[in-house]
Amino acid sequence: MSACSCSAYAAVEGTSALSPCESGLVLIEGGRAGRLAARAPRPARHADAGGLTLGQTVRALVCGGLVILAVVVASALVDPARAAGVQSALDELPTRSVIVSSGDSLWGIAAGCELDAPTDEVVTWIQERNGIEGGLVVPGQELMVPVAGAQG
User: Is the Cβ–Cβ distance between 90 and 122 less than 8 Å?
Assistant: First the structure.
C-alpha cells in the first residue's frame, strides 16, 4: 500500500490551488495558465483545406494574378523606353568600318565591339544602321559598328 501525504500551501504568486493526484504529483493551477484557459477557444481549421478557407484561397489567387499582370504591364512600358535610351546612347558613339569575314555573325561582331550595352541592342543598332534584314551577313560585306570612345 502506498502512502500519500498531502499538504496545503498558501497561494503564492498567482498559484490558486495545489491539489494532490493519485500518482503523488501535485498539480499547480492558476497563474498565467489559468487566465489563458479562461479565454474563448479558437475555431478549429479544417485539415483538408490546407489552412485556408475558400474565400481566402480565391483572394490569394486574385491578388497573385494582379501582381503578375502589374509586372507584365510595367515591363511592357519600361522595356521600349530602356531600348530607346540604349539606341540613343549608341547613336552618340563614334563608328568604324568592319569587313565581315567567313564565319562571322552579327552577334559575334556586336560582342567584339566591347561596349557597355546589351549585345542584342548592339546587334539591333548594327542592323538598323546598315539596312540589314534578317541578320544575315556575307563575307566581304562592310558594316558600320559603334566604337567605345570619348563622347561629345
Answer: yes
Quick: pLDDT tens for 41-71: 666 655 554 588 999 999 999 999 999 999 9
CA distance 12 to 4: 23
What is residue 40's DSSP assignment?
P
Residue 6 belongs to some domain of the structure: no
Is position 116 within any domain?
yes
Return the residue matching grid coordinates 559603334.
146
Tell me the pLDDT tens digit for each residue of 90-114: 888 888 999 999 999 999 998 888 8
Residue range(s) defining the domain that contains residue 130: 86-146
Given CA atoms 116, 111, 132, 148 in this order, what sign does their dihedral have?
Answer: positive
Task: Tell which residue, 29, 23, 34, has the closest CA to residue 9.
Answer: 29
